[in-house]
Amino acid sequence: MQIDVIMNQKQLSLSVAADEFLADTLRRYGFLSIRKGCNTTCCGLCTVWIDDKPTLSCSVLSARLQGKRITTIEGVEQEATEFAKILASEGAEQCGFCSPGFIMTVLAMKRELVHPTEAEIIHYLTGNLCRCTGYLGQMRAVRTYLRGMHP
Ligand code: FES
Ligand code: FES
Fold it and tell me: Averaged over 93-111, what is the pLDDT?
């Protein structure tokens, strides 16, 4: 079947199978920032925005997204680069496999939460796993980013 979406601010027509999940559709169409770490809604690596809400693309059927607005890291490149530089400066970039999904969650949090507490930040990021960094560098980067103190 064919669905029409707004993909990173542009109209796009996608041909999708009835049982296909969005993560697979997007990778098939060349959005290779989408990573799959678990395929069971546990790791957050496949996070994209659907109508501006961070969503696990491994758990959403593409066929249900007619008319929706989908954003991947390719669609917020400038902001993502800004935060990625902070991640690197805090030594939290490591292998980078989790970074696109993590960054999409952080950018969404910046839009959604006003002056979040430490507990609110941790709660928002709970679904994004990283097997390299131990999270302390990531948390320093998030705090720096939210304070607007960019290197
Ligand atoms: S691949 Fe989607 S949550 Fe892990
Ligand atoms: S940086 Fe390697 S999994 Fe997060």
Answer: 95
